[in-house]
Design a protein that fits this description.
Elements (H helix, E strand, L loop, with lengths): L4 E2 L5 E5 L4 E6 L6 H6 L2 H8 L3 E4 L6 E3 L4 E3 L2 E3 L7 H4 L2
Antiparallel strand pairs: 1-2, 2-3, 4-5, 6-7
């Protein structure tokens, strides 16, 4: 059986137990709780680990856990991230 797919843009393609079809390119936060409950724990955890969890302090872009750069306790995207060392030079 094909596994759920996490795409590079952060969306997910998953098998819907309730619709008996593949649901394609959905934001993880838009997947209904009942669908998550029907997934195996490892599949559910794999998707939730990549979910959008913050907005960039600089530009407001939605950030996925894997893309966050932290500076002084605030989340930044790669384009806005500027470590203090770079600002002092």
């Amino acid at each position: 059986m094909k596994r759920n797919t996490i795409h590079r843009d952060g969306t997910v393609t998953y098998w819907s137990v309730y619709q008996q079809s593949w649901i394609t390119h959905v934001n993880p936060c838009a997947i209904p709780d009942k669908e998550y409950a029907a997934m195996s724990a490892p599949e559910r955890d794999r998707i939730l680990a990549r979910e959008v969890i913050a907005k960039c302090h600089g530009c407001g872009e939605a950030l996925m856990r894997k893309d966050i750069r932290w500076e002084n306790g605030s989340p930044y995207c790669a384009q806005c991230f500027a470590p203090e060392e770079a600002n002092n030079g």
